[in-house]
Amino acid sequence: MAEVGEEITIKRKKQYGLCSKLWCLRCMNCCKADDVSILTSRNRRELSVKLMAKYQNAIQLNPEEIQVLDVLILLYTLDEKSWAYQYLYQCKLISNEESSRNDLEFYIPQLMNYLVFHEEMLNENISQFILTSCIHNFYFAQVVYWTLFSISAIVFDNQVTEFQKVRSYLQNLIKRMVLNHETNNEVKEQNDKIAEMISTYGTPSFDQHSMKCLILPEHIQLSKYKPLEQQESYDFMSCINFWNDIISISDKLKFADPKIISLRADLSLINTRLPANVYIPFVKDQLRHYTILNIVVQETKIFSTKERAPFYICVEVYNVEKEEGKSEDKRERKNSEFNVELTMLSDFKSQSSLAMSQFSTQSLGVAECYEIELSKKEDLKKPSNATLDFEKIGLEIFGEDSNQISERIRQQSPYCHFRSWRLVHLIVKTGDNLKQEQFALQLINQFQLIFQKESLPLKLTTYDIQSLGPSSGIMEMIKDAATIDSLKKKLNSIDKDITLSQFFQKYYAANLHKAQRNFCCSLAAYSLICYFLQIKDRHNGNILLHKSGKILHIDFGFFISISPGKGLEFEKNVPFKLLSEYIDVLGGTQSELFNLFRKLFFKGFVACQKHQDQILLLVKMMYSGHGYTLPCFSKGESAIHDLESRFNPPCSNDGEISVFTQSLINQSLDNWRAKWYDKFQYYFQGIFY
């Protein structure tokens, strides 16, 4: 163990080829470990200045609207930081605008990265600012806690390094927050029957058929959550204790047998302590103001692996303020399957000839959560001389509609009368470092904001991830979607000749054009970010199809400078995955939609190039702190330069950029490396192609 403040060394051996490893005689000390971690170097400041000094001249600090990124640049690069401290206090802590994130909450990972790895917790000005901000805003304090706790230990090359000063700071933070956020909750009088219904709901003792009382929002007594293994609890620790209990269940679940019975028993025990002052610690504003009422135990599913046991839960939540009529939630989620309005058409002509092929794959990692649900369903029998019922096939593939799930559970819930009631779907994971995944989603969110700022119809599906510890966290589960792998397996079990394009035509029928447009806009968007961020491991188990027709990607364990294969690297030099079956869905290479795809890719590229600083700064800040301990930075500084060069190809005008983007598309079309990676996944992982 090492403490921040001491010299922290995290070492790894030099990388050699296979022959060198086999024939090494260990006689020349050439295999001695090198210190390659930026965490331990004395030149973090020099590195920050080297990577980010050029942005200083572009900073224009307007007192009426301080840009958080500008202030962070000053922190990372200036020797004299007094100006930065002053402007830091003028930054907006939390924003309620989804179209723009110019608030410190969104950049907490970069701010904590600076405090821990650059200042090693020794900067009193930053420490005091964070403490003051946490006192001022409860939600900000919670995100700060989870972020600091997540980086209080680093797991690198199977070696754990704990930062004791971070732990000490967290203990001090908790003490201050307990004093400042403690409230005396008014005890409400409850009817005995109502109290019994509330306390037993979500447990085996609850009898739905005996519900004789109507539970109203005013009957809910929101108090501190009582943790399973502690007696004392405080308001600030209420949510923290709740999620610690959830994570502890996941930790011990891998040793349980049978797992599902153990999981449901533990969740039922937690339900006896709900409702309480607990919420989902996601940054998105529409969730953090909702209080958890109950965990729907019977909906729980486990996705077991050899070493881990992640599981799915759905929770009932409600908004206290909306029930009391104090405020309106103008951003209430609306379900709209087909919402893409396109005003752009293109006259681009494609001169590429595409080889027809079909691909399918199987899920790994996060994708398992979208696979197991399908594997438990009965396969449809291949019909003989009968028309296939694609509506039924779609139900088999996508599962029960999320709206129907919500309605079914709501009808069975004693809280069904709450007007703000909603259902949230989550995946709980332990044994995985979710900091990189969370960082990837932060970057993807920035790309989506860029597309919105430029009024482009490019569609990225962002989902929330919150790291809750060095090797644990929760993520939002995307409903009404299935992996391309699952879809192809189901179609293959019915008729091996059914293609993805035919599925679109039969399943979407009257809504085909809208589904194709959604597919086109999302395909162009993900093609762009896969190119810029070099997102790899793009087998069909990590690519999902939503019921609306849009495509989306999950599981970002390989991006920027790391890829699977350890030497083989099938996906190397593939700009992005673009198979002929995708083009067939759009209507072929000469179709209007494929021309639109080319136009959107070009427009999106120009937009990303225009706002590239929004991406590059976040990457450079994280690299200057975490260094090689985040796998995505395994190639060091060269990975940063490569990323920057992808935003800035040798083009002097839009015409040259247009030619360059079209060459990227042509290079990606049925690239043999992408096709062989699919085959590799099929033969070694059983993944369809």
Describe the fold and architecture.
- With 689 residues, this protein is an alpha+beta fold.
- It folds into 3 domains: 18-181, no CATH class; 185-326 and 402-479, Phosphatidylinositol 3-kinase Catalytic Subunit, Chain A, domain 4 (2-Layer Sandwich), CATH 3.30.1010; 365-377 and 388-400 and 481-612 and 648-685, Phosphatidylinositol 3-kinase Catalytic Subunit, Chain A, Domain 5 (Orthogonal Bundle).
- It is 44% helix and 8% strand.
- It has helices spanning 18-23, 44-52, 68-77, 82-88, 108-118, 124-136, 138-150, 164-181, 192-200, 235-253, 259-271, 285-288, 320-324, 372-375, 390-398, 402-412, 435-453, 484-494, 500-508, 512-532, 580-586, 592-610, 613-626, 637-647, 654-668, 672-685, and strands at residues 153-156, 159-162, 291-295, 301-302, 311-318, 422-430, 465-469, 472-476, 481-483, 543-546, 551-553.
- The strands form 3 sheets. Strands 3, 4, 5, 6, 7 and 8 form a 6-stranded antiparallel beta sheet that branches. The protein has a 3-stranded antiparallel beta sheet with strand order 9-10-11.
- Strand 10 and strand 11 (551-553) form a beta hairpin.
- The longest helix is centred in the last third of the chain and has 21 residues, at 512-532.
- The radius of gyration is 26 Å and the shape is globular.
- It starts with 17 loop residues before the first helix and ends with a helix.
- The model is unreliable at 1-5, 328-364 and 372-381 (pLDDT under 50).
- One of its GO terms (biological process) is phosphatidylinositol phosphate biosynthetic process.
- Its EC number is 2.7.1.67.
- Residues 400-672 form the PI3K/PI4K catalytic domain.
